[in-house]
Write a structure and sequence with these properties.
Blueprint: E1 5-8, H1 9-13, H2 19-38, E2 58-60, H3 66-84, H4 93-112
Antiparallel strand pairs: 1-2
């Protein structure tokens, strides 16, 4: 399995020195990792309650379950793009809907024995 970093805080904070931008980058990372953890999409706990995130904090492909990786592949960029269109960083609706589609597809595949492409 080829492992690689999917997202790292410093990738986003290097672009500018604006404090507000840095704060949003940290919040984005905290939000996605907490979402992944809450839904059982990580192989291990990356962020504990009260833990602070630094510039080097990241998550990798190997941190994700297969389902978590599918979610990231299909919906992570859509979620990030939502912020550019004015959605709150903590709004995980796109991720929630994506996960529901993945899980419904998986349930359908289990019942029928056929692959459902989304």
């Amino acid at each position: 399995m080829d492992d690689y970093v999917i997202s790292q805080v410093s990738w986003h904070t290097r672009r500018t020195k604006r404090k507000a931008f840095h704060e949003s980058a940290y919040l984005r990372m905290k939000t996605i990792v907490e979402f992944l953890q809450a839904h059982g999409l990580l192989r291990t706990t990356l962020l504990t309650e009260g833990q602070s995130i630094d510039e080097e904090f990241c998550f990798k492909k190997s941190d994700l379950t297969d389902e978590g990786f599918q979610l990231i592949q299909g919906y992570y960029d859509k979620w990030l793009n939502g912020h550019d269109r004015g959605k709150a960083i903590t709004d995980t609706t796109i991720l929630e809907r994506g996960l529901k589609k993945l899980r419904n597809s998986s349930d359908e595949q289990s019942r029928t024995g056929t692959l459902v492409v989304i």
